[in-house]
Design brief:
308 residues; alpha/beta; eight-stranded parallel barrel; 13 helices; 14% strand; globular
Length: 308
């Protein structure tokens, strides 16, 4: 039951200051955040490529309060794309973006987010890669899906994320599992009310399996976002049942979590993509990683006690 408490803390400025000042924080943050700058993250992309892995890069930061901040987020992604282009890494790295960073919650936010994300998607396409729109809390999803649909008119490879804990997601999956689509399925990491989302872990897992089946039996490209060995094995079986080759879907896991499993799946011939976050505004992302898995919280607590 700690998960909802941690998610609530992710919105607390007081808790942000406490966590940022804790002596053991940097040790744990470094486990999940690849660095603060493009210069720090590029070697990680190169190392992943050498190991047969692919990456999706997320410039962290969600609390955007002005159009200027949204434009700065856009420019951070454009800088990243320029670096990938210069190093010829476009084929190994895509981008993941949260539309909240591009101004979605501001006045006229839908239009602002679309205007800011479009040049990022265009620049990514120019170097041979693509962008996936991350799912955030349920109030943002209609806007996200509408922007996804608009972008796909010119950039059909643009992906999106769906979350198994939401009641709506099975219907979303059926709609999205069309030829040419790219859809990442995750469990979900935001605090959602019982009116829109399953609250029981077993129900979330059952929904995950149902949705994975829909995606595997569809005509699109499923991206299985999970660290759960049981769900990974089920996804492999559903892929076999659907007649999919190993390069017709992929697994995605977070940087810093189950790294040995990244290598194992790639060695088996699966496409394995590592979700790699970087940047200075790491707090919200970090807190959701703690909420997702109690072991992460225990690791953080031990680090504080050790360093304190």
């Amino acid at each position: 039951m700690l998960g909802p408490v941690i998610l609530a803390a992710s919105r607390s400025d007081k808790m942000r200051r406490f966590v940022s000042a804790a002596p053991g924080t940097k040790q744990v943050v470094d486990r999940f955040i690849a660095g603060e700058t493009v210069d720090q993250v590029v070697p990680i992309v190169e190392d992943a490529a050498d190991k047969g892995l692919e990456v999706t890069l997320d410039v962290v930061g969600e609390d955007i309060t002005t159009p200027a901040q949204a434009e700065a987020a856009r420019d951070a992604y454009l800088e990243l794309i320029e670096r990938l282009k210069a190093l010829d890494l476009g084929a190994r790295a895509e981008m993941s973006v949260k539309l909240s960073m591009f101004g979605q919650a501001l006045e006229s936010g839908h239009e602002l987010a679309l205007a800011n994300v479009r040049p990022v998607v265009e620049a990514a396409a120019a170097i041979g890669t693509t962008v996936t729109l991350d799912a955030e809390d349920h109030t943002t999803l209609d806007s996200m899906f509408a922007i996804h649909e608009e972008l796909r008119k010119d950039f059909p490879q643009t992906g999106c994320v769906i979350q198994s804990y939401l009641f709506r997601t099975e219907d979303d999956a059926r709609r999205l599992a069309a030829a040419g689509s790219r859809v990442r399925i995750v469990k979900g990491a935001y605090k959602e009310p019982a009116s829109v989302a399953y609250q029981d872990k077993a129900e979330i897992d059952k929904a995950y399996v149902r949705i994975t089946r829909i995606l595997m039996e569809g005509e699109g490209y499923p991206m299985i976002g999970s660290h759960d060995p049981r769900l990974i094995a089920i996804a492999q079986e559903l892929g076999r049942q659907a007649g999919r080759k190993l390069d017709e879907y992929e697994f995605q896991m977070l940087y810093g979590i189950r790294s040995d499993e990244h290598i194992r799946l790639a060695a088996e011939g699966h496409r394995m993509r590592v979700y790699t976050a970087y940047g200075t505004d790491w707090y919200g992302y970090f807190m959701r990683r703690l909420a997702e898995k109690p072991a992460n919280l225990l690791f953080f607590g031990r680090s504080i006690l050790t360093k304190g």
